[in-house]
Write a structure and sequence with these properties.
Blueprint: H1 2-18, H2 24-45, H3 54-64, H4 69-74, H5 81-100, H6 112-124, H7 130-139, H8 146-155, H9 169-175, E1 180-189, E2 195-203, E3 209-215, H10 220-237, E4 243-246, H11 255-262, E5 266-269, H12 279-293, H13 301-317, H14 340-343, H15 352-364
Parallel strand pairs: 1-4, 4-5
Antiparallel strand pairs: 1-2, 2-3
């Protein structure tokens, strides 16, 4: 169309230049002759409709629209003057539509800052669905459609459905870790064949272990007294425990729930034969068996208590934990060694290997 319109413009421009030396009388005669030919053409066509190409319409609209309405109506044309004006309006609409058309199809992309904010809200609040996130963004003055939040979560592999509002057991353990204490009985045998029962508890926030005691006869009185000692110990240390997680072992008497309730601690029972509900405690039991009980010949109850005290101290004050970035529950990481001179302040007389490493490091420096 553009090539054809340019051709019509150039040819008619040369035609206009040809009319410059022609007198007004000759122009009027030519105009009358052209009007008569149009009349003859209209009479031959009858009621048939004349077809104009798109470029013909554009040329006639650009040529005739600047004329006054009265002059345009007096012209003898194959179409009405209103048709020429409609052609011009259509051309203007098409031009405006082409200029307003976005360069990229579809919706405009969501701002990166808004996407990061949506993902942060979902990560920090796992129970929120896309509707809740939409409401929170509205309170911040961020106008975004709920369907857009849905698409953002789907693209990141996060389920945006309302089912995400259901709290899972793992989510409960993570959200209440500061107030959770887990407990369990561990059975072991001495060399004499006597069965020993170890009662231990572990904190969820910091995996600090508390070996509460060991006995060959876990009676109700012994368990109750042990729980009382635990409650007093928690109160003395200022631990803010709200829930005690344990299984449904028959060795726990009903009285301990009342003792814990007096200390504002609620008992939470795990499901029947569902050890994963008390996974942190079960993981420590595995570590105890692998690192101590399976590697030590326990003579009697006194020997077992001594070994458990040593292992409790080792576990809480020395053993590294990945969840604590290699620190221990009761021992923080030391300051990093950045200069060779700092190593000389260490007591390396009992560490031959460290002495050799220090010498090689200073020699290299």
């Amino acid at each position: 169309m553009l090539l054809r319109l340019a051709y019509l413009t150039v040819t008619n421009a040369f035609a206009a230049l040809r009319l410059v030396p022609v007198s007004d009388r000759d122009k009027d005669v030519e105009i009358l002759a052209l009007r008569h030919q149009i009349t003859v053409l209209q009479r031959q066509l009858g009621h048939g409709k004349v077809q104009f190409a798109v470029e013909d319409r554009a040329f006639l609209a650009a040529l005739l629209t600047p004329l006054p309405r009265e002059v345009l109506r007096r012209l003898r044309l194959l179409v009405r003057s209103d048709t020429v004006l409609r052609w011009h309006r259509d051309l203007m609409k098409q031009r405006h539509a082409n200029a307003s058309r976005p360069t990229r199809p579809g919706r405009p992309p969501t701002l990166r800052s808004i996407r990061q904010l949506v993902l942060r809200l979902v990560r920090e609040n796992p129970s929120w669905g896309y509707r809740r996130v939409h409401g929170e963004l509205a309170t911040l003055g961020i106008k975004i459609a709920a369907s857009t939040i849905w698409e953002i979560l789907k693209q990141e592999g996060i389920d945006p459905a309302p089912e995400r509002g259901n709290t899972t057991w793992a989510g409960f353990l993570r959200s209440q870790a500061d107030a959770l204490l887990a407990m369990d009985f561990i059975e072991t045998l001495t060399l004499t064949g006597q069965r020993q029962y170890i009662l231990a508890a572990i904190e969820h926030t910091t995996p600090r272990i508390r070996v509460l005691g060991t006995t060959a006869h876990p009676t109700a009185a012994w368990v109750t007294q042990t729980i009382k000692n635990l409650a007093m110990d928690l109160e003395d240390t200022g631990a803010k425990v709200k829930y005690l997680l344990r299984d449904r072992d028959a060795k726990y008497p009903a009285l301990i729930d009342e003792v814990l309730a007096d200390a504002d601690i609620q008992t939470v029972l795990t499901g029947i034969r569902v050890p994963r509900m008390n996974s942190i405690m079960e993981r420590w039991v595995r570590s105890l068996r692998y690192e101590l009980l399976d590697r030590t010949l326990v003579w009697n109850e006194q020997h077992l208590r001594h070994a458990l005290r040593e292992y409790e101290q080792f576990y809480n004050e020395h053993r590294t934990h990945r969840s604590l970035q290699a620190a221990a529950p009761l021992r923080a990481l030391p300051e990093p060694i950045n200069e060779p001179g700092q190593i000389t302040h260490l007591d390396i007389r009992r560490h031959d290997r460290l002495r050799g490493i220090l010498q090689e490091y200073q020699h290299a420096a």
